Amino acid sequence: MKKIFIFLFITIFIVACSSSNSSNETSTTSTNSEPSVFNVDLQVLFGSDDNSAISSNSYLKITGSYGDYEGKIDAVSGASTPSASPKALNEYRAKDGKVIDNRIEFGIAEFLLFGTASADKFMNDGVSINTYAQKVVGENVGPKVEGTGITKDANGVITIRFAHALGTTLTPYLFEMKSDENGVFKIGQGTENFKRTANPVTNDINFSDAVLIVDTAKAGIPYWVGDLQATYENNILTIQGTLTETNN
Q: What is the pLDDT along the chain (248 residues), one digit of tens a residue?
């Protein structure tokens, strides 16, 4: 009888452990199957060349599956604080941090950095007190791009046109982004509401004369999709929303 009791105890113990392991595996699988998310909260004051005013009214907040960041600029130095904002954004914008393997439209990824940008970047990229973009580095001056800036038409469509020269280069790419009539920027949909030049422009140009291509994430890698709600009033632009990672 004692042997039978021991046998039954061992059998029950093994069954209980197996059931527990199965439950844990199910739980882990369910958790891991949840799609990654990218939460965006951006506010930017445009039309100003005053770092103090920009610092008081602009910020970038990122939260989600690949890390969190909250930054702005220092009113005195004009530097991003903390300084890791581009690195933090790169965790979301590109596969393995390689910007060429972009997981989101180039334009919106660059635009988010205005939340931690100084007045110099606003001027260089054409969204400050001027209606043109022209990067200046010391005595070196890049091409002049007329017709940049942010507008909101009577139907509620927000149009953003800016130019951005990468790193220390002077020749900029041109970017155009358009919301729908409700102020929504649809990310990852492959629409013509996101456009850019295929290459940097090397001569003075009017934005309307530039040849643009559709700005999309790189094919074949996971990318972000979703709606970002924007408002634009009194030179302050806000963009907020949650994006979801997809392989489709």
A: 444 444 434 444 443 444 444 444 433 333 457 899 999 999 999 999 999 999 999 999 999 999 999 999 999 999 999 977 778 899 999 998 788 899 999 999 999 999 999 999 999 999 998 889 999 999 999 999 999 999 999 999 999 999 999 988 999 999 999 999 999 999 999 999 999 999 999 999 999 999 999 999 999 999 999 999 999 999 999 999 999 999 87
Q: Give me the DSSP letters along 198-246.
A: SS---S-EEGGGS--EE--PPTTS-EEEEEEEEEEETTEEEEEEEEEEE
Q: Is the CB of residue 92 less than 8 Å from the CB of residue 188?
A: no
Cα–Cα–Cα angle for 90, 95, 97, nearest 5°? 40
Contact partners, residue 68, CB within 8 Å, separation at least 6: 62, 88
Across 124-149, b (16+ Cβ under 10 Å) vs e yields bbbbbebebbbbeeeeeebbbbbbbb
Compute CA distances 175 → 8, 165, 170, 213, whole Å: 72, 11, 16, 10
CA dist., res. 149 & res. 164, Å (int) = 12
Identify which of 194, 132, 124, 131 has the alpha carbon closest to the alpha carbon of residue 159. 194
Tokens of 22: 């199965």
Structure token pair of residue 126: 């054409």
